[in-house]
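Supplementary Methods. Inverse-folding protocol.

Structures were first reduced to a discrete structure-token string of length 84. This string, shown here, constituted the complete conditioning input.
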């Protein structure tokens, strides 16, 4: 081997623990990011499926009778007209 290769090997061997630690940390970070992305995807798919299920259900419709309010407002308008 050339002297350059020998020097490079010695430097790598001296820093092998640090290099391995850095690789393990990057592996953990990569796995963590992928886990977060997977959880977000599963959550989004679950929410979308639930939304589709809920949109297919029949909704309860309530009717409101506003006759009393309309009569009251008409009475106020009529009363204001007579006062003028």
């Amino acid at each position: 081997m050339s002297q350059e290769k020998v020097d490079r090997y010695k430097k790598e061997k001296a820093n092998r623990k640090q290099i391995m630690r850095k690789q393990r940390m990057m592996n953990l970070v990569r796995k963590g990011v992928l886990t977060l992305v997977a959880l977000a995807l599963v959550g989004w798919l679950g929410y979308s499926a639930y939304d589709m299920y809920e949109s297919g259900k029949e909704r309860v419709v309530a009717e409101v009778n506003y006759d009393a309010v309309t009569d009251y407002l008409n009475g106020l308008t009529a009363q204001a007209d007579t006062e003028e």
